[in-house]
Specification:
alpha/beta, four-stranded parallel sheet, 12 strands
């Protein structure tokens, strides 16, 4: 017999007991994700010998393949609904997974969504590269294109705040402004809660190292802080694909200050690895695309060219060339989703080649 479930329901949040010492805790969350996500062995054919690789399938969190973003949004949008917001305003690149996940979740919850998207072109040329942008538009989001290099603290945040003021004045709609990637103190709890999930799954006690791709820093911060608070013995690594080690250490330090752990230094909590961004954020190579296809065609697990492949590439390369960086051989990769980046035309030649070679 069908019964109403808890999806889309705002409820009070009871954090894990090991967070009791923290100065900040969210009060509410809204159920959006399908949890827990599974963990399985990942037999990549070109993985270095000796590596025991496992994958946490956070590409399966639901919300139209929301990936890691939906864990953060459970807390961010839970706060928005609890405070009576009618709209959310966020920002990112033109192919931002966070913006797409926010757009989908907002419509599930009856909220209006406004996006500031950084792009090289600020006109109709962007439509040639659909990917996440297609879903943003199909969810009814209102989009403003802004210069690709505009920084959050030097232009974007001000635009968000001005839009929020306008919506309140003109429509009497209270809005919540969400930073890039949802990486704030509220969103932090997405991966504090995920750590508790992995403890319950007995994952943490059976791996030596955890790797994650680092785009805005929120997921990496949550994992590193949870590892510290629980006294776990794993080593947490984050592969930078956008900014650099200095930027992410600064972001994590701000987070530590905000939750009452300002006496800690990020360098002691997490190993941030530069060198795998390639020629730039969102840029990819023919070799990258071939590797992505090899993995999907042999394991059935898809990596995207912007985030997950670069993080995985960092893991595999570092294990091969710099094994002392690792605590052990049992390594867990947190798959943060991002499959829609495969549809932004980067894969066109690979599609043509596969068509020619595989269609009978």
């Amino acid at each position: 017999m069908w019964t109403k479930n808890s999806f889309h329901k705002v409820s009070k949040y009871i954090p894990p007991s090991w967070t009791n010492s923290l100065d900040f805790k969210p009060s509410h969350r809204v159920k959006l994700a399908m949890l827990p996500t599974p963990v399985c062995e990942w037999k990549i054919p070109f993985a270095p010998q000796g590596l025991q690789l496992f994958v946490k399938r956070d590409d399966m969190t639901g919300n139209t393949l929301g990936g890691n973003k939906i864990r953060k949004l459970e807390f961010i949008l839970g706060k928005a609904l609890h405070e009576g917001c009618k709209a959310v305003i966020t920002c990112g690149g033109v192919q931002s997974n966070h913006c797409r996940a926010t757009a989908v979740a907002a419509k599930e919850l009856g909220l209006d969504c406004y996006l500031f998207l950084r792009a090289e072109n600020t006109g109709p040329d962007n439509v040639e590269y659909p990917g996440n942008l297609l879903l943003d538009l199909f969810c009814g989001s209102k989009i403003s294109f802004i210069p690709k290099r505009m920084q959050y603290k030097m232009g974007i945040e001000e635009r968000q705040n001005k839009l929020a003021e306008s919506l309140l004045k003109d429509r009497n709609h209270k809005s919540m402004c969400i930073p890039i990637g949802g990486s704030d103190l509220v969103g932090l709890y997405g991966y504090i809660d995920a750590w508790e999930e992995m403890l319950e799954q007995k994952v943490i006690e059976n791996v030596d190292d955890i790797f994650v791709t680092c785009g805005s820093g929120g997921t990496a911060a949550g994992l590193a802080i949870a590892n510290y608070l629980t006294g776990s013995q794993v080593k947490v690594h984050a592969v930078s694909v956008s900014d650099n080690k200095q930027y992410f250490h600064g972001h994590i330090k701000e987070t530590l200050n905000g939750i009452g752990l300002g006496h800690l230094q990020p360098e002691t909590l997490i190993d941030i690895i530069d060198g795998y961004k390639g020629s730039g954020y969102g840029e990819t190579t023919t070799e990258d695309i071939e590797s992505i296809k090899t993995i999907s065609s042999t394991t059935g697990i898809f990596c995207d060219p912007v985030y997950t492949w670069k993080g995985l590439k960092g893991l595999l390369t570092e294990y091969k060339n710099n094994r002392t960086r690792f605590k052990g051989d049992r390594v867990l990769f947190i798959h943060t989703g991002g499959i829609f980046s495969l549809y932004d035309n980067k894969m066109h030649q690979a599609l043509v080649d596969s068509f020619n070679n595989q269609v009978l």
